[in-house]
Amino acid sequence: MPAFGIHHVSAITKNIIENHDFFTKILGHRLVKKTVNQDDPSMYHLFYSDYKGTPGTDVTFFEIGLAPKYTPGTNSISRTILRVPSKEALQYFRDRFDEKGVYHEGIIDYFGETLMKFSDEESQRFALVVDDNENKAVPHTDNDIPEAYAIRGVYGVELTVQYLKPMVEFLTLLGGKYDGDIDQDTEARVDFGDDAVFIFESRTTNVEKEGYGSVHHFSLRVKDEADLEEIYKKIKADKWLSSGVVNRHYFKALYINAPGNITVEISTDGPGFTVDEPLETLGEKLAVPPFLEDDRDFIEMRLHPL
Q1: Residue pair 25/77 in contact by the 8 Å Cβ criterion
Q2: pLDDT at position 55
Q3: Contact 138, 54 (CB under 8 A)
Q4: Which residue numbers in the chain have pLDDT < 50?
């Protein structure tokens, strides 16, 4: 089975405390997993999502305290797009951002959708889009945001690339649906179920330099490891460089070096965040995968309290 939606988006922050406050107190997400980067346990890796940590609702952050600020450019994941259920919800967040001093732009038409761009204090680029389709998100209600207006998860990502055609071909290989003119379009929308990847072509040689405020990778969803292996075989046959299947404890993952040197991950829906914590207390304690458990004391010593 091909990829059928967005699984999560992972970005970089320099200040995890301010980042945590922005996501939990302003956007209303729940911190469902407080863990570390499994490849570099010296840094936090936080997962924000709906109440249950439903796949497709996660925005995650790595804290890199010495990271420079990103330099915007092409060949980048240039925006993370979150869904709200109505135009009234979009207006609610517009007023909320005004009240709390969050930068935002006007409400616009974006590929036929109603959307508002905004950013946090690190210039991390986001947008809210109106999507009244039913999904399986369970809004986190332990905040001051009315449930009827709560963010419902990740709708999509925006990519800026030097060459649109190879990116569209790559995404359709993974299961994306596209009905444009691949040889003429300079903007494209590739759908994965109810989610989407939006692509803008920018032929500049100014390639984005990663840092705080930028997105490291985005991940597409598959149901289970059998589907992940199927995609792995497909991308190997097409000669794409990848990590091979990696066990991330909460899901299995495959990292692919996509056109423009953009990292695209494929992740399984399970086993999920309750594999090592009960639902009621997700994110309250530092969680580490089993292979790091013996190093817990050393890891905790290096992390500042959160």
Answers
A1: no
A2: 97
A3: yes
A4: none
pTM of the model: 0.98
Distance, in Å, from the CA atom of 133 to the CA atom of 164, rounded to the nearest integer, reads 28
Domain ranges of the chain: 6-302
Q: Which amino acid is at 267?
A: S
What pLDDT does residue 206 have?
97
- pLDDT for position 299: 97
Q: How far is 139 from 153, CA to CA, in rounded Å?
A: 9
Q: The domain 6-302: what is its CATH number?
A: 3.10.180.10
pLDDT at position 207, please? 98
Structure tokens, 281: 């207390």
Residue 112's pLDDT is 97
In this prediction, residue 158 carries a pLDDT of 98
Question: SS3 sequence, the chain?
Answer: CCCCCEEEEEEEECCHHHHHHHHHHHCCCEEEEEEEECCEEEEEEEEEECCCCCCCCEEEEEECCCCCECECCECEEEEEEEEECCHHHHHHHHHHHHHHCCCEEEEEEECCEEEEEEECCCCCEEEEEECCCCCCCCCCCCCCCCHHHCCCCEEEEEEEECCHHHHHHHHHHCCCECCCCCCCCCEEEEEECCEEEEEEECCCCCECECCECCEEEEEEEECCHHHHHHHHHHHHHCCCCEEEEEECCCEEEEEEEEHHHEEEEEEEEEECHHHCCCHHHCCCCECCCHHHHHHHHHHHHHCCCC
